[in-house]
Amino acid sequence: MGLHRIDKKYRLGYTDRAKKLVEKMTLDEKVSLMSGKVPMAEILNDFDGENHYNYKPYPAGGIKEKGIPQMLFCDGPRGVVCGTGKSTCFPAPILRGASFDTDLEERIGQAIGREVRAYGGNLFAGICINLPYHPGWGRSQETYGEDSYHLGQMGSAIVRGVLKENVIPCIKHFAFNSMENSRFKVNIDCDKRTEREVFLPHFKECIDNGAAAVMTSYNLYKGTHCGQNKYLLKDILKGEWDFDGFTMSDFAWGITDTVEAANSGQDIEMCESNYYGSNLVKAVKEGKVPEEYIDESAIRIVRTLLAFTEADNKAYPLELVGCREHIALALESAQKGITLLKNNDNILPINRHQVENIVVLGRLANQDNLGDLGSGRVYPPYVVTPLQGIAKAAGKKKVVYNDGYDIEHAKTLAKNADYVIFVVGYDHNDEGEYIVYTQVGFMDSVGGDRKNSLGLKPEDIRLIKEVGPVNPNSVVVMIGGSMIMMEEWKDYVNAILMAYYPGMEGGTALGQILFGDINPSGKLPFVIPKNESDLPEINWETDYQRYEYFHGYTKLDKEKIEAVYPYGFGLSYTKFDISNVSFSRSGNYIEARCDVTNEGSRGGDEVIQLYVGYSESQITRPVKALKGFNRVSLKPGETKTVTIRTPIKQLMWFNEKTNEWEMEHMTYDMYLGTSSSLRDLIKGELDL
Amino acid sequence: MNSYIFETIEHHKENPAKIIITSIDHSDYHWHYDYELIMVIKGELILSVLAESYILKEGDIALVNSKEIHGYRYSNKDNICLIVQIKNEFFNLRDDKNQSYYFYLNSVKETIKPKLSYEHFRKHLAKIGIEYGSKKFTSNLRIKGLVFMLISDLFDYIPYDIIQYGSDTVQVSDSEDILKIIQFIEDNISSENLTEELCKTIGMSEKSLYRFLKSTINMTLKELIDVTRLNHAIYLLSYTDKDNSTIASECGFCNDNTFYRLFKKRYGMTPLVYRNINPKENRSNGIKEVQGYLDFSKAEAVSLLKKYVNG
Fold first, then answer.
1. Among A272, A489, A508, B143, which lies 20 to 30 A Cα-Cα from A565?
2. Which tens digits make up the pLDDT trace of A625-661?
3. Is the pLDDT of residue A48 over 80?
């Protein structure tokens, strides 16, 4: 037992041993590896006592006497769901997406990996990379943003981080899971180019970066449940993509048919045997499922678990959970993701030496608000609320909070204040995992998709519109897991920040940004349109939904609709200049290069973004799409050369007729800059 | 802290609140950590909170926030009041010692409209009073329940601000400046150069200190010092056997005559008479005697409270 860097080659090195072990197993033993061991009744029971969902790692399979380890499942993605009052609660992935910082995400992945190990787990199932086709999706907060390329990069980063601690990275929900309320019944349809170019590439990217487990989704794709969808599991995942790990179903309702699931390549039924177990043994004996399929699943499971279990013999003490370093990382993440959208007259940052009196308004300012309360709920030792964070940053200055319920009182407070900060948006009641009470009845959350409105609540809008103009130093801080409509109220205040769900140290980061101790550097991982009608059509309560090729910023681009705030947009307290832009080809890569200069008097980070356009294309393609990004830190006056390298194959399109990825040979539009808006981009060309 | 302006409220073990049904003659400016709810069940009473005064009439309720400097004065009608003093630790719902809640509940001067009617709170307070009066086997338990309900209702239905302090920082507000001044006076009561020392300590000129006190509690520094000295004298008269001269000098009066004159002016009797009519054995409840709570009929109070409960 040595120390191994886990990659696919290393894992495949366990194939022979796995085969030999599986050869000696009875059918019952092999099938026993293919089920979770946690009865749903027990999970339900955990909610009545002091425990909660996944308070300890949930086991599957394992045969002790044959040396086959169990799979020990830990959920996420905000951190590790196990334990109570212990785990580090990072910002929700949507904020981490806004950092555009893959190095940071890798470090977060490693910290999560350590906490999984400390809890005794060996699999992290909190890597959600579903693409929010429509921002109203209640679980957008669990994913990194609307763009497939960006999702693939951020997802791969956490996969690499988790792998560093020899924990199995499990990506989910495979696939097309971008609707919540109807997730158990909705049948998703789309054309093949949409499937391959929009909804699957980020899964492929994460597999190529070492993801070793895949959780399937509840929804159907083209009429078949994804948990038993041969096309997705056998043909694409294990066939074309040559995935070496194992698959598992989502809990309890992830598969609906023993034979169809086993024949589709579904390796593990979670969280207990309903359709597998004795039903699967029977199906094999009746010849409905070939035993070689069982052998293949068993080999995948044994190979993966042995490879990971034997990769090291390090001890992970429980003290690692929620340790100082991990909490510092949660803070760093919030500092780098919170996004400044508006700052008229540079009213921010607040100069703490020139103010006496800060007023904070809005119910959400005084609330622990880490995101939804579904299966991703993490239980940290403490939470710094926006109010606490602002007071901490204000030092000895007076900070007064009121919920804003009484407009006249709010106005009186605002008039006499140096700054007024509105904290508005959502919590777990408004969006998140949606559990039908009659079906389960145990989750303390309403959640679901944002069916009725993508805007702020009427009382929040009223508060901003009536109280905002009373004080020129009015700042809105939005809390929420996805795009929030702003057109109706954005002109009533001079500064706006998007804080997403910023995690256990979110309040601290927010205070530091408001007072200029930290220069904001987050970038929107979604577009903010003027009208909800600019977004794709969707029916949240349905059993059929078609996903079109265009969504988000590519849809607005195509329809020549101006956004309120474009994808990739975010302001800083300093000013960056981009010069000497060049685009070239270097082997199988595109290289975009520029010099970035910090022209202001404050250090700061900028995210340089590469978009590729297809104006010469003979087929329907986006006006432009993100194909690379790089975050750079610059001291005042400093200049750095930034190079972005992207494989040329990222520019290919999927030809439905030939069923092949193909390269168009033409002149591509190249754009380099600081957001997806042409105002923030410098254009060039490249022949490929 | 040897305090009377800072009122130490003794709670029975495990009880979240102290209940008092009483007639009030006067209660000088004082403060405490507890949140105090007062309901006038008969007559009238003047409540002063910093520089503002309100006449509370029958059925009026007011909440005095933690550490808020306040005082009561007899108006022209005899009163009976119900006072519920709740430990501030029960207001620390977020487990954050840097937060303090400031509730807006005053039926005479409504700053913000409550989300539930005063009627609701009147009824609830009356129930607490009746339980307190009944002394049943279960009263204590029932009072606890009612008080916890009351606290929840305050959070849910009474508008409040939160004063949020950054950790490790000391927040300075008018109220706390006054607390500091009072504290300094109490600690240095026998000093002869009290004014000078006070100005030096808090960093204000005598002039600005005068303006500050006048605008916040509507008293001059001399009045505040005299009140503090007299309160201390009352305390010594009630709880010690020290003679008048010693008391006068311990309280910082420059001579016995000044002590007599000021005492008589404020309380309408000499120190000696005061000591005689308040024999030591009756002084078990310090606050009651010291602060001048008057006698009243318990039976009357309970029957009045029942009217509120039954509407």
1. A508
2. 999 999 999 999 999 999 999 999 999 999 999 999 9
3. no
Question: What gap in Å lies between CA A334 and CA A508, rounded to an integer?
Answer: 9
What chain B residue is nearest to A411 in terms of C-alpha separation? Answer: B112
Contact A400 B159 (CB under 8 A): no
3-class secondary structure, A653: strand
Closest partner residue to B169 (CB to CB) among A360, A388, A396 is: A396
Q: Residue A388: list chain B partners with CB under 8 A.
A: 96, 98-99, 164
Extended beta strands in A102-211, E state: 123-128, 168-174, 187-189
Determine the residue among B164, B171, B176 to mutate to test chain A binding: the one whose Cβ has the most chain A Cβ atoms within 10 Å: B164
**Chain B contact set for A396 (CB, 8 A):** 166, 169-172
User: What type of residue is A320?
Assistant: L
* Residue A2: per-residue pLDDT: 43
For chain A, how many residues are written? 688
Torsion angle of alpha carbons A401, A407, A408, A410, nearest 10°? 20
DSSP lists the bridge partners of residue A478 as: A424, A498
**Per-chain mean pLDDT for chain A:** 96
Q: How many CA atoms lie within 13 A of B83 on its CB side?
A: 23
Residues of A in Cβ contact (< 8 Å) with B99: 388
| Contact assessment for residue A537 and residue A493, using Cβ atoms and an 8 Å cutoff | no
Distance from CA of B246 to the nearest CA of A (A): 43
Q: How far apart are CA B135 and CA A515, in angstroms?
A: 56
The predicted-structure confidence for A597-606, as pLDDT tens digits, reads as follows 999 999 999 9
Backbone angles phi, psi at B196, to 5 degrees: -60, -50
Average pLDDT over residues A92-114: 98
* CA distance to partner chain B, nearest, from residue A392 (Å): 4
Measured CA distances, A103 to A109, A153, A675 (Å): 10, 10, 20
Q: Omega of the bond prior to A173 within 30 degrees of 0, cis?
A: yes
Q: Are A296 and A304 in contact (CB under 8 A)?
A: no
CB contacts, 8 Å: A387 with chain B: 162, 164
**What pTM does this model have?**
0.89
Q: Write the CA distances from A109 to A155, A165, A198, A481, integer angstroms.
A: 10, 9, 25, 20
Q: Is A506 helix (H, G, I), strand (E, B) or coil?
A: helix
**Which of B104, B164, B173 minimises the CB distance to A388?**
B164
Report the pLDDT value the prediction gives residue B13, as an integer from 0 to 100: 59
Angle in degrees, CA A597, A598, A603, rounded to 5: 145
Interface test with B, best of A388, A411, A419, A515 (most B CBs within 10 A): A388
Q: Which residues pair with A170 in a beta bridge?
A: A213
A400, B172: Cβ pair inside 8 Å?
A: no
Q: Does A261 touch chain B (CB under 8 A)?
A: no
Distance of CA A352 to the CA centre of its chain: 35
Give the tokens for residue A528. 């903010």
Tell me how far apart the alpha carbons of residues A194 and A183 are, in angstroms, rounded to a whole number. 20
Is a pLDDT exceeding 90 seen at residue A170?
A: yes
Which parts of chain B have pLDDT scores under 70?
Answer: 1-14, 167-175, 278-296
Residue in the structure block whose two tokens are 């709570």: B293
d(CA B203, CA B207) in angstroms, rounded, equals 12
In the prediction, which pLDDT does B280 show? 58
**A62 φ, ψ to 5°?**
85, 130
Please state, in angstroms and as integers, the Cα–Cα distance from residue A40 to each residue in A71, A251, A440, B91, B305, following that order: 17, 9, 10, 39, 54
ipTM: 0.86
Q: How far apart are CA A373 and CA A364, in angstroms?
A: 16
Residue window 152-171, chain B: list those with CB within 8 Å of chain A. 159-167, 169-171
Cα–Cα distance measured from residue B171 to residue A231, given in angstroms and rounded to the nearest whole number? 65
| Burial readout A339-354 (b: 16 or more C-beta within 10 A, e: otherwise) | bbbbbeeebbbbebee
